[in-house]
Write a structure and sequence with these properties.
The chain is built from 41 helices and six strands. The chain has 893 residues and is mainly alpha-helical. The radius of gyration is 36 Å and the shape is globular.
Length: 893
Amino acid sequence: MKSQGYVAVAFFALISSSMAAQPDAKGIEFFESKIRPVLVDKCYECHAAGAKVKGGLRLDTRAGMLKGGDNGPALVAGKPAASLLIKAINYDGDLQMPPKGKLSAQVIADFSTWIEMGAPDPREDSASSERKLGSIEINEARRFWSFQPVRKPEPPPVPGDRSTAPIDRFIAAKLAEKGLEPVTAADKHTLIRRATFDLLGLPPTPAEIDAFVNDDSADAYAKLLDRLLASPQYGEAQARYWLDVARYAEDQAHTFAVKPYTNAYRYRDWVIDSFNADLPYDRFVKLQIAADLMDNDGSPASNNQRAALGFFGLGAQYYKNSDAAKAAADELDDRVDTLTRGFLGLTVSCARCHDHKFDPIPTQDYYSIAGIFWSSKLADVSMGSKEEQARYQEGQTKVQAAEKKVKDLLQVEKDKLIGAKIDQLPQYFIAAWKCEARKLTQADYSTETQAKVDKLDSACLGRFTKLMNRKSPAIPALDAWRRSLPKAGAPAEPSSEVVKAARDFADAVKATLAKGSDKSKDEMMQSLFGEKGVFPITDAEVVNKMPSDCKKEYETRKREQTEVAKSAPPMPPSAHGLAEAAPVNLNVYIRGNPAKQGEPAPRRFLHILAGDNPPEFKKGSGRLELAQAIGDAKNPLTARVMVNRIWQQHFGRGIVGTPSNFGALGERPTHPELLDYLAARFVESDWSIKQIHREIMLSSTYRQSSERNPQAMQVDPDNRLLWRMSRQRLKVEEFRDALLAVCGNLDRTMGGSTTNLDSASNVRRTVYAKISRHDLNGLLRLFDFPDANITSDRRSETTVPQQQLFVLNSAFMANQAKAFAARLKNEANDDGARIRRAFVLAFGRAATDDDVETGLRYLQGKDSAKDAAANKLTRWERYAQALLASNEFLYID
């Protein structure tokens, strides 16, 4: 039994006071995109200002949720299983809310996730804080720091500054405000390991370390950076950072049948090549939005740039059979979200159901961008030149013509065999009728028995009877059969009407045969004479029964078909991308519901960036104009967002700690003037990513050691002021690649189709591994690879027992340990020398005397008989595994 008032109160009763904790930006974004729209759509009718509030419960403010209703707690933050809310929305027992219908499984899962996050809710205590559509003050909002134009500030003068580098002057000024000094510089061994991993995602070789350490020239470090930036491995490492933002994957997770993207690797390879070529970032942006609409000189490079459209072409697709409009809206949301977070650092997706609650983005702006993607379609985009495509089409025309000649000859000969079969149709018709008549008095009478009586093929009669009893409007001749079916008490022998119906049926089939139309598309002819029909006639049978002269002609045509197919030009490579569709302006979906549409939303750019009256996009879908607006040097966000991502890569944290959120919910920049300086330098350098890497890495700030300073730890424990270099853990790709490189197994072949990480023989770089949304590889999942269903700006770092078990017990680690031990044996003559070699290879530094002594002591030990029998690795292999599993291997100072 349902009690409406009690359920309403129990469902949304007193919320745990732990909600009062200040939520983080990601939690707020989750609430805005997943939770608030449901509350507005499903709950505000009865639990908001202006409504007849049921159960004393208000859900339109945070205070109302905290206060609760007339009953006890319904939510325990952090504990979905203990929350009455989850029980209610699952319709578990009498508590069934909302009362008008159960929420979808995905929405219920979102509420569970929200509670696990601590139920973050940023709403103010007054209902008046809910902004109405059109109430956003754009001019006022433009005063916010990230919407201000980028201006190149003068680096501040710092008394006693030890460096003239602008970056260091900005950092030193902030340190001086807190009375702090930077720590000492890193030694050369630390520096080359740090720089090589940062730019290549690989450890330096002993030869590279020696060359750098022994180079006493003033520009030794600058030369090192130039070498690393010119390395092909640079693009492989840098691409992986961007592929996280692009939520790169090679299949789908939101469809019943997993749909593979067989050409996804072309986008990945294009990103790698773009970083290696130092493609100007503004063009890098524009190509990913509108490569198919940009200038193309017909060169292979221009044609290959269409692979950039994989940024959207590899995005989410949703199952459309249950609610196609909702699925299409979700796909649009994925594109809007990935575009605006990735390039602009704005959470425009939060305006899907209502005006953005914190940033100056009205719902209309959301649908202006969504309309651009509605006016585009997913497509496989050819990467061939116009000439290659024309040659391919010409070749396919010849192939099809040759195939038709073979099919035409087969059909002529097949028709002759069909003609002979048609003459038998009346016999089968009457036999089937007799069988049906006998079944009226003898239920177990079979077609096999009747076939023996009439001396017909038993299997054919069985199939014929099934066909005649089938209901198919596409075979009108069956109507006569149904009219002539025997009835109880009627004679068991067919009447003259039945005999006539049998002849009429055969005549109808003959008439169809005589038409000469494509009989492969005629259901009656296929049902009778197709390869799975009543009288199956296969192509092999037709060829076998051909007269000799006809068979010779067939063989000639078949040979010509093979030769034409063999000589036809191959299909030009293609990539998954976007193409133009009919340009359409969307209307605003009221509360995000496609079935409830409001005011029109012209296709154009965001008001906050394009002015009070942004011009409408008129060129097709508007993608090209969108690309130009985002890649415009005057756009205050594009350069800032990217240089912040580069800074984060080097220091572990961006100048803005929320790299994909430069809005009100994002963190404020720790060094705003430095951010603008780098953004201005970025544009001045023709948007050169390599130049920004170089400038950052040449700074004294980057070259600091990671040593701790007790005073600085007290003042700035999180190192936001950068008084030292923070230690960073290798990402899973860097960890795996470093293992393969150190052990001498790494295959440095670049590009090409995806590889399987589960294969023991796969020793290529991890950037080439298959990325699945449906079933992510276990190693990637274990070491915090991001969810490829959504754009990702940072990797989380977990430390769980399963990670330790992997390095201790996995076959992969055991194989690397064996390979490392074998390499050391080949490259050094005694155990002491091998230990020293191992430390240089694994850690990039010389082993200390203590390191050598400890290693020798272990290696010279003896296993007990029991341990010797149990161990699958030798002592040297176990020692090698211990080095590879160490924190010193996993972390970069």
